[in-house]
Amino acid sequence: MSSLSRELVFLILQFLDEEKFKDSVHRLEQESGFYFNVRYFDEMVTNGEWDEVEKYLSGFTKVDDNRYSMKIFFEIRKQKYLEALDKKDRAKAVEILLKDLKVFSAFNEDLFKEITQLLTLENFRDNEQLSKYGDTKSARNIMLGELKKLIEANPLFRDKLNFPTLKNSRLRTLINQSLNWQHQLCKNPKPNPDIKTLFVDHSCGQSQPNGARAPSPVNNPLMGAVPKPAGFPPLGAHGPFQPAPATLPTSLAGWMANPSTVSHPSGFNPITNSPLLKRPRTPPTNNPAADYQTADSEHVLKRTRAFGISDEVNHLPVNILPVGYTGQSHHGQSSYSSDDLPKTVVTTLNQGSTVKSMDFHPVQQILLLVGTSTGDITIWELGSREKLAHKNFKVWDISAFSMPLQAALSSDYTASINRIYSYHGGDDLRNHLEIDAHAGSVNDLAFSYPNKQLCIVTCGEDRSIKVWDAATGAKQYTFEGHEAPVYSVCPHFKENVQFIFSTATDGKIKAWLYDNMGSRVDYDAPGHSSTTMAYTADGTRLFSCGTNKEGESYIVEWNESEGAVKRTYNGLGKRSVGIVQFDTTKNRFLAAGDEFLVKFWDMDSVNLLTTVDAEGGLPASACIKFNKEGILLANRSFDASRVASASVVKSSAMTTFGVANPSAGPSVMDRVTTMPPMIAMNGDNRSLVDVKPRVGDESMEKSRIWKLTEITEPSQCRSLRLPDTTSSTMKVSRLIYTNSGLAILALAANAVHKLWKWQRNDRNSTGKATANVVPQLWQPTSGILMTNVITDTNPEEAVPCFALSKNDSYVMSASGGKISLFNMMTFKTMTTFMPPPPAATFLAFHPQDNNIIAIGMNDSSIQIYNVRIDEVKTKLKGHSKRITGLAFSNVLNVLVSSGADSQLCVWSTEGWEKQTSKSLQIPPGRVAAPVVDTRVQFHNDQTQLLAVHETQIAVYEAPKLERLKQWVPPETNGLITHATYSCDSQSIYVSFEDGSVGILTASTLRLRCRISSTSYLSANPNSRVYPLVIAAHPTEANQFALGLTDGGVIVLEPLESEGKWGTSPPLENGAGPSGLTAGATSTTDQSQR
User: Fold this and answer.
1) Minimal CA–CA distance to 632: which of 886, 342, 963?
2) Which residues of 43-74 are buried (b: 16+ CB within 10 A; e: fewer)?
3) With 0-12 CB in 10 A as exposed, 13-18 as middle and 19+ as buried, what is 925?
4) What is the pLDDT of residues 614-624, one digit of tens each?
C-alpha cells in the first residue's frame, strides 16, 4: 500500500473516532495494522478480555514472529491460566494449558513442565516465583507494564504506536477544500451552493443533483498538478530510484575486471551523524541490486578488524591519518624496509583472561581494544598502560531474547550474543546493541556501509551470514548457502559494486551482493582451509590466510579478476591446534603469528622476510594487529597482550611512548592531539578526550606507594550473618548461591539443608542476595526439612556434597548415604538412589545434559550416571583416594577430577577416556596431609583451571594441565580451607584456618586485599571459628559468602563507597610479577605479609 493510501486510513480512523464508531475504529486498526491503540489494549487487558486481546494483537504480530512477540503472547496466556487456577477452575486451566500454552513447550520444555506442575499445588502461590502474586487486578497491572515494554521494544510495532498529529476533522476539511475547488470551476457559480452528495463532482448546473459535471481535469490548465481521479499515484513514481543498470556479472572475474580509472579526491568533508542512523531506504522492487553509492564510498567497505570501528566506516576524511614518513611518499612503497617493522617489546598489558581479538582505535592510535574469551572487553591506553574502560560480559536484558536463547543463557552459557558498544573517550564505554544473532556461536563480524547505512555483518555456526542495522539492530539481509559453519566475513566496495566475501570451515569461499539472489561465486580456499580474507588499506590487493584440518597453513594473494591464487607465500609451519592469524600493514607487508613467532613477508616476495620472537612467551598462534599507520603491533602472550614498536621506541628499556625516533617523522603522540572528532555508533558526534601518556616516573611512584588493603574492623566492609532459628551449631560443609542469585543454600554436617531467600522490597528492588538486607530462612508451609539419608556412621565423618540444577528447581545431595533429589520449592524428596558403599563424595551436572551426572565416590572411582534411565553409563578409574572435586568444560568437552591423593585427571566427555593426569607439586618446606581435599573450578573461559589445595592456589591450562601460576600463602595464615573464582573470574576468594579471607587478582595471583576475621566475627576468645567453605555470588563480582565451623553463614561485600576489594598492585616494569611462569612459585605476597 502506498504512503498516501496509508495516510488515508489514518484520516478514516480519525473520522470514525470522531463519529463514535468505536468498534469500527478498532476493527480498522487491527485489519490495517497501521496503528496499535495502546489505550484500547490497556482497557482489554485490565478487563481480562483475553480473546479480544489476542484477536487485536493478531493484526500486528503472530506468536512466532520474534522473541518479543513470543513473550507478549506467553505473558497473556500465562495470566489467563493463573486466573483460572485462582478461581479453582481446574478444567478451564487444563484447557488453557493444552490449547494456549503448549505451543511454548517447543521453545522451553522445562518452563512448560513447571507451569504444568502448578496444577498439583493447592495454591500456586506456593511456587517460589509466584509467591508475590497478589490479587487479579494488581497482577494484570503488573503484567500490563511488562507488555508495554515488550511492545515498545518489538520492531514490528515500530512507527505504529503513535497516531500522526492531525488537525480536528482533517478528512472533512479535505472534502470541503475539494468541494470549494470544484465550485470555483463552475461556469456560473452560485453564492450559496447546495451540496447534496459526495458521490459525484459538484456543479452549479441543473441536470445533476450537484449540477453539471465539472470540466475534465485533463483539459483544464488548473488541473495539471492534481492527481487523476483513478487513484493516488504510487510513491515510487516520485522516488529517488534510478534506471536499473545492466545485469551484474555472476562471477568474481566480472566484478573485478577493468579497474576504475576514476580519480578520487584525497579527502572528503566529514558528514554529520544523522545519515548513519536513519532507517534504510526501501529498495526498488524492480532492481534489488541497485546501488546508489557515489565515488566517495570507495573506501567505506574496507575490511575492518574485529571489534574495531574503522575510519572508513565512520566516514571520516581519508587524509586525517598521516601514513607517510619523513622523505616518503604515500605511493613510494619501495622506500619501506624491514627496519620499519616492529621488533622491540615496549610494554606488556595483563588482560586477566585469554585474549581472543584486538584492534587499535582508528583515530587515537595508542588506544587498544581487547576482547577476551569470556566476553569481556577492555580499552587500554598504551602510553600509560592504563585501563581506560572495561566491560564484563553480562546479559543486558534476557527477556528481550528468544525463548531458546533464554533457556541456553540460563542453563549452560554456551549461547552466543552479538554485542555492540559505543565509545566516547576516556572511560565512557556505553552499551549500544545486544542482538540474538545466530543459532550457536558468532564466529566473525565486520562493519559495512551499504546504501549509505552503517551496518554490521555477522556469521556463525548456523551456516548463515546476516546484515544488521548498526543503529537499531534490525536485520537487513540473511545470506544462506554454505554447507558448513561460516568462519569469517570480509565486506568490500569496488567499482561501484558492494559485496561480502564469506569463508566456511569446509574451505568454501562465497561472495554475496546486498540482495537476496544467492551467492555469486563459489571457490575453494587453498587446502580447503578455514580462512580469513583481508584487503590492503588502499583496497587494491586481496589476501587470505588459514589452516586446514590436517594442520597445513596457507597465506596467499588472490587475482581478483580471475578468481585464482596469484601468489602463495612460503614459511608457515604445520600445526597441531589452532588457526593461523594474519594482518597487513603499510600496503606492503604481511604478518602472521606462527610457531611462537611473528613472521613477516614483503607482499611482492613469496619468501619469508624476517621473524620476531617478542622476547619469548608467544603462543603457537599469536593474534596480531597493526594500527592504521602500521607502527604498533599487538599480540597475545598467554593471558596478556604484548605491544611492540620499532618506529616509536627503539630501546627495549623504554616503558612509555613519549620518545620517538627522529627519522620517523612526527611521533604517534604528536599526531593524536590533532585528530578530528569520531562519529560514534549511537550517533553522537563529539570530540574524544586527548590521550597523553604518563611519564615512567609516575608509574614507578605508583609502584612504590601501592599498599595491600587490610580490612580489620566491621566498619571497613559490609557483613551480614544470616538469621538461623534452628540454633544449630553443626559446621557448614557445603555452600552455594542459587543460579538466580536470589538465595543461598547451605548443607550442614548433620545432613540438614538451609535455604535463605531475599525478598523484593524498597531496599532491595532486585531481590538478589545482599549484605544490606536480612533474608528469610525459608521453610515451606509443611514445615519439613531437606535432610539427607545418613548411615550408621558418625555424620561428622561423612563427606557431604550437593549440586544444584540450572533452573534452581532441584538439588541433588548426599551426606554419606543415598543420593537424594529434593524439590527446592516444597523441600520434598523426589527420589533416592545409589546406596553406599561406595558413598558419593562429589556431584556435578553435565553442562549439556541435566540428566547426566558425574558422581565422585569414596572408593576413588567416578560414575557417569543417567538419572532418567537410572543407569550407570561408565565408571572412570584413575585416582587412588576419594574424589574431592569435579569440573566440566563445555568448550574443551572434558571433565577434570581431583582427589584426596592431590592428583588431577582429565577425561574426554565424548568417549570418557582418560587424556592426562598430573599430581600437584607440594611447595618446598610444606608437608601435605595424607588425605586432603583438592578442589577444581574452571575459569569463565572454560580453559584455565583453578586448583585449590590446603597448601596452595594454582592455575592450570587444560586439557594438558600445564601449570601457569602458583600462589603459596605464608604458614602464619594456617592452611587454605577453600577458594573460588568470583563470578567474572577476575578475582579469587581464599579462606584460611585463621579465619581470614584473601582476595587475589586472578590474572596474576597477586594478593590485593586481606580481610581479618575481626571484621565479620564477634570477639570470643574461647571459640575458634573460621570459614570452611566460600561461595561467590553468580552476578555480583564483589560479593561472597562464608560457611563457618559454628554453623553460621556470613555474606560479605565491600563498602558502597569503595565498590571493590582493594586495588591490584601495579606491574613491575610493565612485565608482571616475577615467579608467575609455569611451574614457578610467586613469593611476592609473602613479603607483603
Assistant:
1) 342
2) ebbeeeebebbbebbebbbebeebbbbbbbbb
3) exposed
4) 766 677 777 77
Element (H, E) at 917: strand 914-919
Global pTM reads: 0.44
Per-position DSSP letters for 438-469, written without gaps between them:
-SS-EEEEEEE-GGG--EEEEEETTSEEEEEE
| Residues 1042/1029, Cβ–Cβ less than 8 Å | yes
698 φ/ψ angles, rounded to the nearest 5 degrees? -65, -40
Whether the per-residue pLDDT at 113 is higher than 60: the answer is yes
The stretch 1029-1056 carries a mean pLDDT of 95
Cβ atoms of residues 533 and 252 within 8 Å? no
Exposure string for 127-158, b = 16+ CB within 10 A, e = fewer:
bbebeebeeeeebbeebbeebeebbebbbebe
Question: What is the per-residue pLDDT for 1019?
Answer: 76
pLDDT value at position 850?
Answer: 80
Q: How far apart are CA 180 and CA 193, in angstroms?
A: 10
Contact partners, residue 958, CB within 8 Å, separation at least 6: 889, 892, 894, 896, 906, 938, 943, 944, 945
- H/E segment holding residue 545: strand 542-547
Residues constituting the chain: 1089
For the chain, the first-to-last Cα distance in angstroms comes to 77
Q: What percent of the chain has pLDDT over 70?
A: 72
The cell for 881 is 583416594
Name residue 452's amino acid: K
The beta strands (E) that lie in 781-882 are given as 800-804, 810-815, 819-823, 829-833, 840-845, 852-857, 861-866, 871-877
Integer Cα distance of 816 and 733 in angstroms: 12
Q: Give the pLDDT of residue 394.
A: 63
Spatial neighbors of 634 by CB under 8 A, at least 6 apart, are 358, 360, 368, 623, 624, 625, 641, 642, 643, 644
pLDDT at 448: 86
Cell numbers given for 195: 451540496
Convert the pLDDT of each residue in 955-989 to its tens digit.
Answer: 999 999 999 999 999 887 789 999 999 999 999 99
Cell numbers found for residue 925: 618446606
Beta bridge partners of 413: none
Q: Which ranges of 638-786 would DSSP assign to H, the alpha helix?
A: 668-672, 696-705
**Nearest of 357, 305, 348, 371 to residue 614 by alpha carbon:** 348
Task: For residue 661, give the C-alpha cell.
Answer: 625516533
pLDDT score, position 780: 84
* Res 1083 pLDDT > 90: no
The grid cell for 717 is: 566492609
Task: Check: CB of residue 443 under 8 Å from CB of residue 487.
Answer: yes
Cell representation of residue 650: 627503539
Nearest to 1046 by CA among 1020, 1084, 1008, 1083: 1020
Which residues are within 8 A (CB) of 616 and not within 5 positions of it... i.e. 6 or more apart?
A: none
Q: Are strands 377-381 and 508-513 parallel, antiparallel or unpaired?
A: unpaired
Q: pLDDT digits over 235-279, tens only?
A: 233 332 233 333 333 344 333 333 333 333 333 333 333 332 233
Q: How far apart are CA 398 and CA 991, in angstroms?
A: 34
Average pLDDT over residues 914-932: 86
Cell of 698: 609516575
